[in-house]
UniProtKB/TrEMBL annotation:
Residues 3-343 form the FAD-binding domain. One of its GO terms (molecular function) is 4-hydroxybenzoate 3-monooxygenase activity. This is 4-hydroxybenzoate 3-monooxygenase. It is an enzyme of class 1 (oxidoreductase). InterPro entries: FAD-bd, FAD/NAD-bd_sf, RIFMO-like.
Length: 398
C-alpha cells in the first residue's frame, strides 16, 4: 500500500499532522500500533499552553477544550518557609493554561480526522523505515492479523514517541542523540479524587518533592519524588496518601481529598534531543524528536507546535514543489525544543536539589549546598517581580 505521507503514531503530534495534511488535500495515512480505545483513554498531559490553543483554534480543533476545558493561571509553592502563590496568568505576558486532559484532546483530533475522511490504521505497528535517504522510502509494518506489510511513501513522519520505529530506523551516525538525566525519579499518580487546591501545587520538602495538578472535577494527578529503582506498587494507597499529606504539609494547609489510585507509573526525569530532526525523507516530531521531563508540562505543547510546522513544510513541498519548509524544519523546531529543555531543567532544579556531581560539605552530608541554592531560588521567585514575570512567561510559553 502507499500514501504520499505515512505518519507513524496517533498521539497529539501524529493526529494534528494527519488533520492538517488531509485538510490540505494531501494523501496521507496514520499508522497506530495500539487500539482506538487505548489511544483515547491514555491519561498523560493536561496543561495546554496559549500557543497550543491558538494552533488548535486556527484549524477548528478547539471546540472540546473550549466547552469542557478550564482556564488556569495559578500555582502554589509550599516550602519550609511557608507557602506562596503566583498568579502567573496575571504576570509576564498574561498567558493562561487550559486544563484539558490529553485523552480528550486525542479523542477530539481523532473524531475530526475521521469525520473529514482521514485514513488511519489501528493495531498496525511500524517495524522499520527503510531507504529514507533514497528515492523510494517505505515502512515495514506488522498488520492487525500479524502478517508483515510494506507502505511506500514520499515522506515519513515519525510521531511514534521515544521508543517508536522512527528513532530506531535512524542509521548510526545519521543524527546526534543528546541525552541528559536530571537524576530524579517521580511516581506519577492518577487519583479518583477532586482537586485539593485551585492551583498547581509544588511542595518542596526534606522528604522529597510532591506535586498536585488538576485534571477534571473527579480526577487529579499527583507526583511523588521516588527512590529510583523502587517498583510503583511497593507502597500501599494509605502510605502514598500519608506521604502526600506530609510533603504537601496538610497539617498547615489542610488535608488532601483522597480517593482510589487509578494509575501509578514510575519515571526517571530524563530528557533527550535528536539533532537534526530529519534523515532524508524521514522527519521526527513530538516525543520522537525530543523527550522532556514532565516538570514544566511542555511535551504535548511542543508536539502540537512541531506538527503544525511539519504540516506546512510538507504541504509546501507536495502542493507547491517548494522544499524550503522541509529544509528549515529541524532548525526551527530545535530552537523551540532547546528553549523548552532549558526551562524544564530550571524547573527541575527549582523543585529538587540535585546535581550530576556529588557535592559534599565538611560533615560529609550531601546536599546542603544545593538545598541552599534551591531555597534561595525559591525566595527570589517569592519576592522578585521580575523573576515572577520571567517565570510566568516561560511557564506558559512554547
Ligand atoms: P505520544 O502521545 O506518545 O503518541 C505516540 C503514538 O505512537 C502512541 O499512540 C503510540 O501507541 C504510537 N506508537 C509507538 N510506537 C509505534 C510503532 N512502532 N508503530 C505505530 N505506532 C506506534 N506534556 C504536556 O505538555 N503537559 C503535561 O501536563 C504533561 N504531563 C505528562 C504527564 C505524564 C505522566 C507523562 C508520561 C507525560 C506528560 N506530558 C505532558 C508529555 C506528553 O504526554 C507527551 O509529550 C505527548 O504525548 C507527546 O505526543 P506525541 O504525539 O509525540 O507522542
Amino acid at each position: 500500500e502507499s500514501a504520499d505521507v505515512v505518519v507513524l503514531g496517533a498521539g497529539p503530534a501524529g493526529l494534528v499532522l494527519g488533520v492538517l495534511l488531509h485538510t490540505a488535500g494531501i494523501d496521507c495515512v496514520v499508522l497506530e500500533r495500539a487500539s482506538r480505545t487505548h489511544v483515547q483513554t491514555r491519561a498523560r498531559a493536561g496543561f495546554l499552553a496559549p500557543n497550543t490553543v491558538r494552533i488548535l483554534e486556527r484549524h477548528g480543533l478547539a471546540d472540546g477544550l473550549h466547552s469542557s476545558g478550564r482556564r488556569h493561571g495559578t500555582c502554589e509553592f509550599r516550602t519550609e518557609d511557608g507557602r506562596f502563590r503566583l498568579d502567573y496568568g496575571a504576570l509576564g505576558n498574561g498567558g493562561h493554561h487550559h486544563v484539558y486532559p490529553q485523552q480528550n484532546l486525542v479523542t477530539d483530533l481523532l473524531t475530526h480526522y475521521l469525520a473529514i475522511g482521514g485514513r488511519i490504521r489501528f493495531h498496525t505497528e511500524a517495524v522499520v523505515v527503510r531507504d529514507a535517504d533514497g528515492t523510494q522510502p517505505y515502512v515495514t509494518t506488522r498488520e492487525p492479523d500479524g502478517r508483515p506489510a510494506r507502505w511506500t511513501a514520499r515522506y515519513v513522519a515519525g510521531c511514534d514517541g521515544r521508543h517508536g520505529a522512527a528513532r530506531r530506523s535512524l542509521p548510526p551516525g545519521a543524527v546526534r542523540h543528546h541525552q541528559h538525566d536530571h537524576g530524579v525519579t517521580w511516581l506519577g499518580l492518577l487519583a479518583e479524587a477532586p482537586p485539593s487546591l485551585d492551583a498547581v501545587g509544588y511542595a518542596i520538602h526534606a522528604r522529597g518533592f510532591a506535586g498536585h495538578m488538576a485534571r477534571t472535577q473527579d480526577v487529579t494527578r499527583y507526583y511523588l519524588q521516588w527512590q529510583r529503582g523502587t517498583p510503583a506498587d511497593s507502597w500501599s494507597e494509605q502510605r502514598i496518601w500519608d506521604e502526600l499529606d506530609a510533603r504537601m504539609r496538610a497539617e498547615d494547609h489542610g488535608p488532601l481529598r483522597r480517593g482510589g489510585l487509578l494509575e501509578r507509573a514510575v519515571f526517571d526525569l530524563t530528557c533527550d534531543v535528536v539533532e537534526p530532526l530529519r534523515h532524508g525523507s524521514l522527519f521526527l516530531a513530538g516525543d520522537a524528536a525530543s523527550l522532556l521531563a514532565p516538570a514544566a508540562a511542555k511535551g504535548a505543547n511542543l508536539a502540537v507546535l512541531e506538527a503544525e510546522i511539519l504540516a506546512e513544510a510538507l504541504t509546501g513541498a507536495l502542493v507547491r514543489g517548494d522544499t524550503t519548509g522541509l529544509d528549515t524544519y529541524s532548525d526551527r523546531c530545535l530552537a523551540h525544543i532547546w528553549r523548552a529543555q532549558e526551562f524544564t531543567g530550571w524547573m527541575t532544579r527549582l523543585l529538587h536539589a540535585t546535581s550530576d556531581t556529588s557535592d559534599r560539605d565538611d560533615h560529609g552530608a550531601g546536599s546542603f549546598f544545593l538545598a541552599a541554592l534551591q531555597r534561595s531560588r525559591l525566595n527570589s521567585l517569592r519576592t522578585s517581580r521580575i523573576h515572577q514575570d520571567w517565570f510566568a512567561e516561560n511557564y506558559v510559553g512554547v
